[in-house]
Each structure stands twice: as C-alpha cells, then as structure tokens.
User: Fold this.
Amino acid sequence: MKFDMGATTLSELGKSTVGSSEDLGTLIRWLIQAAEPLEGKFNGAGRAAFDSFKLHADEITNDLNSSLGAILGGQSGMDKAFTTGDVELEGNAHQNMGLANFDRARFGAR
Assistant:
C-alpha cells in the first residue's frame, strides 16, 4: 500500500473543518426555524422530543462545535508532525550524504 499526501493536504483539510464548524451552527438554527410551523401541531413523545431539541439547540450546537474543534486540533497536530518529519527527513538525508564517501564508490567494472 502506498501512502501519498501532498504537503498542504492537512492544512487544507483544517480550513475545510473550520468552515464546517461555522456551517453546522447555521444549519441547526435553520432546522429550528424550518420546524417552527410544526410547533403545537403534534403531541406526545414527538412534541416532547421537539421541545427538548429546541430548548437544548444552543447546547447541542456548542457540543458539536467543541467536537469539531477537537478534530481541528488533531488535524493541526498531524499537520505539524508531518511538516516537522518532512524537514527532519531532508536534514537527515543531507547529513548522511555529507558523511558518504562518494569518491571511494565504484559504480563500474574495473
């Protein structure tokens, strides 16, 4: 299996996640507004669930945004680790090339 990721993949994913977090809060508010005409039209467990959702909408939004924030933190950490690893790999390669004695290597037949 080959793992090939561009240098900006995780930072681009992070930007996407930030946008998704903002969109999520908006979508929940829109859902509540869209359901407003239904308020008072049904009873029982359905009404209780709707009233509970409406009552806790801000809390739900905050919890979901917190979760997305944690995902964003993880993405940022992975991006930093990959970037650091890339820089270290380059440094190690140059260091090892500097230690190699290419003059003594024989690449052809004698």
